[in-house]
## 1
Amino acid sequence: MPPATSAPDAPVAEGDAEAPPVPTYRSLAAPVSNPVDKFALLPAFLKVRGLVKEHIDSFNYFITKGIKNIVRANNRIEARSDPGIYLEYKNIYIGEPSVQVDFRVETITPHFCRLTDRTYSAPVIVDVEYTVGKTHAKHRKPSFTIGYMPIMLRSYACVLNGKDEAELARYGECPLDPGGYFIVKGTEKVILIQEQLSKNRIIIDTDNKGRVTASVTSSTHEVKSKTVICMDKEKIYLHLNQFTKPIPIIVVMKAMGIETDQEVVQMVGRDPRYGDLLYLSIQECATERIYTQQQALQYMDDKVTYAGAGNIKDGRSKLILRDVFVAHVPVNNGNFQPKCIYTAVMLRRMLDAILNSDTFDDKDYVGNKRLELSGQLVSLLFEDLFKTMNTYAVDRMNKNSDMARSSPLDFSQLIMQQDVITSGLERAISTGNWDIKRFKMHRKGVSQVLSRLSYMASLGYMTRITPQFEKTRKTSGPRALQPSQWGMLCPCDTPEGEACGLTKNLALMTHVTTDQEEGPLRNLCFSLGVEDLSLLSGEEIHAPGSFLVMFNGLILGKHRQPQRFANNMRTFRRSGKIGEFVSVFVNEKQHCIHIASDGGRVCRPLIIADKGRSRVKEHHMKELRDGIRSFDDFLRDGLIEYLDVNEENNALIALYEHVDQDGVQRSSITHIEIEPMTILGVVAGLIPYPHHNQSPRNTYQCAMGKQAMGNIAYNQLFRADSLLYLLVYAQRPLLTTKTIELVGYDKLGAGQNATVAVMSYSGYDIEDAIVMNKSSLDRGFGRCIAMKKYTVTSEKYGDGISDRIAKPQRDRDGVLIKQNMRALDEDGFVAPGQIIRNHDIYVNKQTPKVTNRTPGTALTDRDYRDSPAVYKGVDGETTVVDRVMLCSDTNDKLTIKCIIRHTRRPEVGDKFSSRHGQKGVCGTIVQQEDFPFSEKGICPDLIMNPHGFPSRMTIGKMIELLGGKAGVSCGRFHYGSIFGEPSGNADKVEDISHTLVKHGFSYSGKDFLYSGILGHPLQAYVFMGPIYYQKLKHMVLDKMHARASGPRVLLTRQPTEGRSRDGGLRLGEMERDCLIAYGASMLIFERLLLSSDPYQVQVCRKCGLLGYYNYKLKTSFCSMCKNGENMAKMRMPYACKLLFQELQSMNVVPRLTLTEG
Amino acid sequence: MESPDGSSLPDFLELQRTRVLCKADAPTHTEGFQYSGAFAAMGVDTSVSVEKFCKNFKIEINRLTDEDMEFDMIGIDASIANAFRRILIAEVPTMAIEKVFMVDNTSVIADEVLSHRLGLIPLDADPRLFDYISDDVPNERNTIVYKLHVSCEKGSQRLTVKSGQLEWLPEGSQLTMASPAQSGDNQRTYTSFGQSQQNTSERPLDVKYNDITIARLGPGQAIELEAHAVKGVGKVHAKWSPVATAWYRMLPEVVLLKEIKNGDAEELVKKCPVNVFDIEDLGKGEKRAVVAKPRACTLCRECVRLADDQVELRRVRDHFIFTIESTGSLPPEVLFTEAVNILEEKCERVISELS
């Protein structure tokens, strides 16, 4: 792509003493002759756009523009009986986040909402004009609240917007928290990014029967429809839900006014091959004797699915063609021509695909995908609720006017009568169920609770993309890594299991676009020489050499000089005259130019290069470093631009500014990557040397990094999460990456640098188990705090009767009556700092015995019974009350939140992992004196078995060890960013090894160790050094379970199930099979009867039914035979007896036939 | 090594017996020969005897400061040297804070974590003056009491609490047991000191280092606590370990297998990061590499990495360079004698059990 105009301030080859382009280097990692350190662009980008900017941007767009558009489109409601009574919305805007308490408005902060279980929402305020009464007197009501809308943190409407670190601290907010989520009823909810197939675009594909189809999912504000044109038995049909049968496409064309076959063929294209393929379809139409538009419409009328009101089918098909068939193509004044051409283009592309299978579209291609962000989703919901609210108001007005009320109502009293908007938005976001009937949308799990297990977990949530497909599909296509994901979606970060490859994550520099104004762009296209479609005949459209211009899926017209047009558009974009996210994509194959300004496209910034020479020069970077230049200045000056996935196809992107290599002419390079490490996402970015690892290991680490304990946020100790794991001495990794520094993982680390010896020790290290040094644990390695929240609500029963919190009861000497009240303070709540043990009371609550007592009588102590909240902990562990918080919830009930803290040191069975997907449990804990030690006196913190390496191939971990070792010896943090070696963002192994040698270590990182037990040297040199280890949330203490006898289920009298209910351990079917095979019948008997639910029954030998034992008469009795003569005793499982009785209740008689007894 | 009866082992066996060979890929002959009669057939007796040991055993102190020492221990088996190391780490007792009575802690650091940090602070108390605490009656002979009472005024700057702010209470605990049953009695405290600890040691029983950060306080936060230190051993918890670490290494021996001259010599000298080799001028422009400081060898194996036919790295099996880094309660040399005493005690116990 030769640039039409070069940037005004691009002096050629300034300080750019380039060697003549001699193709000497083959490798991509070729040294850069004059490297411009572009890295500084990355922090600058993140400063401007942030990690979750797409969420915030889309929500901002909604509250500033989208909401106004919705209201403008539905701005007037009027009464059915009297159109003079109306209400008109003049303006709508979002107020400040606040809450109404007793008719007083109080502003709220996010942290306040988190602690008090409130919704962080702001009023939706409208200015209305309406008429009152028969006189239709006009009234205006400014600033009228129609509901409350949950507000995204850090959006324009949020109090945190634009605040600096000190101010955030004052609000109790963590400066590293990215925002972009909502707080609904005290829980943090993320609306995940939804992946969808792009709307209004023609997709050529084959269906499950192998037929070639062209489908378009049309989406406009009014309708959403799907149009499929399909080739069946060499004839082409239209499939539309509104028609019972496929309609021959030529009939459709005729129905739209293209009556001659010649015209149809001309529109598709004059190439005789098209004609050949269309021949059968044309013939079919002729055999049906359809020649005119009228006949075609009649033919179609017969096939309309359901005829609507009045059962009149006549004319329906024309309406369907106008409103449903490729609905996004407008029909103005009955002019079907644009639709005809669109259909013809669809046909042409279909036929192209048949002739040349290369032209099929790939559904998994990222360019054919759109990401739906929270702003769009909330906007859909709001639109629906707003319309619902208006419908309610109209209904009520109609009802009232029907009843002929004396004082006529006005709409302003009606629109707010129900909490439609407030409760609708709150319910949808808190449950995640998006049910919008208007658009036939029923989605579940749209919003999810933001995981606060670690900082990485919450960041990972913000960049997650959920798939459109159901997860059960076995197809591999959508799960596979797409080449078009490069730089846009992280290739590593995807879960394992059913959602593998479907759930994706954004890469570091990805931006998701929001909608942009279409009108001006359209006009610009026309002024740049696009020939309007309405002026073209069918023949002219596909004239050779001219390209069709598609604008957001609509055919705008054609252009004779496509490349020139594209260049002009790009020049406009680079100079900032049109939005920076407008994409211009020349599709040579389809002879199309696609201009896109719609929302949900993924794009990323790239440095523009003129004939392979970067426009960003050293002096630009200096200005950036000096703070004179911002990232937006780079955009404005046309040095950097955003390319979306489609436009990337028109670009040749080099990793580094380089001389010719790999057969690529330098002059043909159009763009240069900012940093190769931006290919990864946030979570994968914390792996050091990921490019040296086997790929699945990076994926495993992405899942595990989210389970690592560490610091969660700066405000972690003031939060009230139901479960919080914190590492006591969290460290920043010795071997960092640039991403770690950019996202703040170095400030909120989740792990510790452990000195690891890779050797075998004691046999307790098989199967990835690690051996830990007891002294290290004594000194604080792996120590963590688990904080659990226990909530008690003091219920209100009306009439002023409510639960009460009583003082701990004492006897006369002041000694506590019950021992388990020892942790209580004098106010009846547990005291912060107190040690609380199993079965201790933490809130001494009392409940009135009678709740519906006549009002007026005061309740005395006797009227209450104890209903204390009892702490259920682990015996033998010391847990401490951290905080007690009191607040009133939204229903004005007193809520008591007790946060109980437990400090744990690692024990055998706790799970640890390095950053390379190498997890393992602690196998044994060994005294320090038994541990090996090196010549320098270094004793490892943990020992890892070398068998973990050969099959896993995590070379990155080895380099991390080397780099960490070099780091501690020379006192400089080493880097291991992905593909960072050429640009200096990763230290090379060779350099690291030289540092090691300089400090007296072996070149290979292997130390000479002495056995700690016997004292002699070990028989091998041992690879030893620091590796960043994460403690994962899976701890033995939370999982271990055993029971002898214990609780039983009421119904079956069998032992309960599950650890939480102190359940038994089931001898399952397969275990039973083993015992049967072994012949251990008595053991089966013991397990399945004696140790489970033995029961003595009285069986009547005569009728075979169960009787009963009369304890008074000391005889057994059969209630069927009415005597006790033939009774026998036997033991059977209670569940068996229960089954018999249940069968009897269903009129099935199970009879027992006894052989003895 | 010469055997008493005059006959000796062949060189290669003698090398295997007395040296660990550190090859480029792996060390060999690391374990040595334990059996006294291993070479009996060759007329060499390698059995251990007191006389032999007394004749050969030698200790040379290289460095001795208040905090650490390095000495050579020559003529001893690795197992015994290791025993000293193990005893130093795990069995020489010290005093360390074991119980913390928290009166007030409004700092961000949790009570348990604060107590853990306090426990790890080295105390300047000679453990030999104290008994092990037995059945939970803290008295002046088994407990040292410290007090920490710091607060950060509202409106002032953030405050760092250092270990120096721990105040020794020679008279015992000042906290009274809030036992309602004995309200009439004179208030009992958590310790029952018979007398003041003021005279038990010539130095006050303070913390060893005053600049260890315990906690940081924000404005309006305060810590008030009493900490009780007792005697214990490192086996139970690392806080009672008297050494930061104690370890040894075998004496390096670097042998040039052939004469290395001129360029090769210079290269060899350059290779070694710790300058084990030096160049000797032979005159006439001839240079030769010599081993100058074998002791400095850290076994980085640079000299044998690419070609292992020039140099051989060895370790002398019965020569240990022993380092003790004390945490401060006792000077390192005393620690070592304590360790020897403990080993002696253990041996006595074995002997008395056997007889």
## 2
Amino acid sequence: MQQSDPSAQFGRSTVTLEVNGTTRVIEVEARTTLAQALRGPLGLTGTKIACDRGACGACTVWLDGSPVCSCMLLAVGVGHRQVTTIEGLATADELHPVQQAFIDEDAVQCGFCTPGMVMSCAALLNDQPDCQPDDVRAAISGNLCRCGTYPHVLAAMHRLRKDPAP
Amino acid sequence: MNAGDDSAGGPSDSPTRAEPFPYGILGVDLARIVRSIPADEPPPLAPNAELAIIGRSATRLDARDKVTGASRFTVDVGLPGMLHGRILRSRFAHARIRSIDASAALRAPGVRAVEVLAQPTAPHGSNASTVRYVGQPLAAVAADSLAAVEEALQRIEVDYEPLPFVVDLATARRPTAPPVYTADDAPRGSASGYPAPAGLPLHGNVRGPAIVDRGDVARGFADADVEVESDYATQVQTHCCLEPHAIVADWRADGLTVHVSTQYTSGVRHELAEAFGLPLAAVRVIAKAIGGGFGSKSTLGVYGRLAVGLSRQARAPVRIVLDREEEQIDAGNRPSTWQRLRLGARRDGTLTAVRLTSYGSAGVGLGAGVWSLAERLYPCANFLGEQHDVFTNAGAGCAMRGPGAVPGAWGMEQAVDELAERLGIDPLALRDRIDPSPVRREERRIGAQRSGWFERRPPAADPGPIKRGIGCAQSLWMTNVQLNAACEVRVHRDGSVEVFSGVQDIGTGTGTVMAQVVAEVLGLTPQAITVRIGDTRFPAGPPSYGSRTTASITPPARTAAWHVLQSLFREAAPLLDADPAALFAHEGRIGVRDDPARSIALAQAAARSRTDFVSAVASRADDYAGFDVRMGDAAIARQYLGGVQFATVAVDTETGIVRVERVVAVQDCGRPINPRLIESQVQGGVLMGMSFALFEERLLDRHTGHMVNANLEQYKLAGACETPDIEVIVLENYQANSATDAYGIAEPANIATAPAIANAVYNAIGVRLRSLPITPAAVLAALGKIPSRDAP
């Protein structure tokens, strides 16, 4: 059996990514998606791949603070934009308020959709601290959860909602 | 129990003692009952109101890992030198494989192993392998990268001889339909046990009937004052676990280690040992975090066997992760069903006869029945059930959340509503007459109050285009128990505690409820307990299916903790100058019951241990009252699980869109251990039931046999925007049957939802939809506004 580096034939590119505040340089094939790059060479497996075509939201990360499906972007196309993954949401000793609220309201069951769900909710809360339940529903309408955590996700976000200043 | 009758109880010669247990429904008839229990079982547990930890909503122990992305699912496992594997699948719905040549794949760059499943032995098709559905595995390749695997798969040459095929249930039933199997190669039994026991006749593609004949239905119908008869149908639903089926197989000279996304570590270990001729001691199965299962991850599967075969060949770890299309076409599904139900009743509602005929298709597999719900939910002296499996050229069905009971309730709970209307009796009042369960009676009473049932109006009462209605349906499920279930509890010299079992947590919170039970015994908090599960190196764990996990593993967890505590009491007794029997554990201390000022830290007692830790292992005892049925390692308790759900819907008669606005779910699971975790699961069951009722359907192209919506955007799942207000109420129903008296909830919560919605839609628009899913097109067709989809 001929043994050679099979990826050599497909061509590799050097990509520089800004991930969770750190500059990371990786070698990937041009066809590698951001989700694959995060989970593979970057070792950030908190980002999940469940449908691999932008339908389920399990791979949601932030690009310059906005939620995107990382399976729908090529790693080579990210450029200088800041990537934030679930691993970059909490500080060393403090959870993001959305993460704490998910724990308090049991807004997790199997947990596979949870990182994407948390990223969508946290982005909404940053943009719209007074978000109403329908805003939350819209923000997570692209995040599928087969266990059915939606009611508790809504409860978690209700807990965090700041009433608009009078 | 008669001497020698060992079918329902434990060994009769073991020492026993009599103890008074709480018994009955809290708020209804809670009393005491004296049970004779094995001498090594712990004393009765008081009702939840008197307990510190059990019955309280402890935080899920692994929640922090899940919200931070730290949880390690099988898809996240990477081992040094790990190869990637993928499967080559049939493009044809039915074909003879004339030849398959994988030699070019084996020579492809980076390829380390090739497994071929289809093995033609003769050049002209005789003895050739046959494939029977699109997506059936043919071969698998392992290579250094996924890209190399994809390249190699394309180099496998398969010569197919296409054969006629059939993918829909109605066509497959006809005598002229293309046969999926010959009489010799058709599956004979059913893994799930219904409807097809071994030895049933096969006519064309129809296996059956499996018959239950009790009393005299002809006489019963003759005695009836009224009859109703209708046909009900359900579609194929797929599990859609967010984490795909995944395995990392690591074959080594000293044994096989497998990381796998599974609902049953112990079961997979047995399958692997048998398939590969290994001693059980040489097989280790690990499942640390599992991204959903719902029945589809109950066994090893062909993909798992292929991964192990590739690893054995390559002498390197191999990971196979199914993609979403593979999940949809070859990872199991809830079979389609069609059933005809005929009920006869007297004017007062008393049932005189029930007749059920069903045909269902689990594709190339068996088990497409509607279970025994119609026979059991409302006892009737005269019952005739005839259930059939119909083979089609589609991926095999498997268990899915309340298998059989979901389509069973879809038919029976609508038929009972139709009977109530014919009799002019309120649907709940009819159920009060014909359902003997005191548990569901109380659930109906509570649900009616909470749901606004008493404001219910006649069908189609709203004058405008948006019409609202309310409907109710009931649930029935087996109270399953796995006896091959064990747990070890260790208290270390420093007072820290570890709990071990092979049992896995698929998202239900199994580890958390085990910690609660142990913490209650030892007088600690759940956070103080380290739970180590999901590994066959620990004592045997039960499966996470059949709603049996809590019922099976929490009693041994309590028993083991209680034995450890007795050891600690013996260490503490001299320090406290008291009899061990006079001690109790509370808030991290061991004290004297009659003189609570005298106490020491639990750790102080543990420090006196002769070895590093005090340990006890316990296994699941038989239910104290015996079982209804016992089959090897599995058993069913005497009282079944219930549940009643009420749905409020708004139907837009111009667009056909049904919105479920509110669901009230009143459920029971024996002693509830963690109300918030139970609420999570019930919400999930309701949502899966609503999604089944309104949105989901596997669509196969009858011209090609390919699934046309093998993804997550055209296979439609309910999302946040469709989520109704869901109120969950859980009874405390003490049965005095085990050390915790706790049972499962996952499946009962999924069984009543679809018929409750259908009954509500009928109440809203005055037209009954008896086929699923209730799409806008189906509603408009039922209203006569557009032609029916099935019209010629």
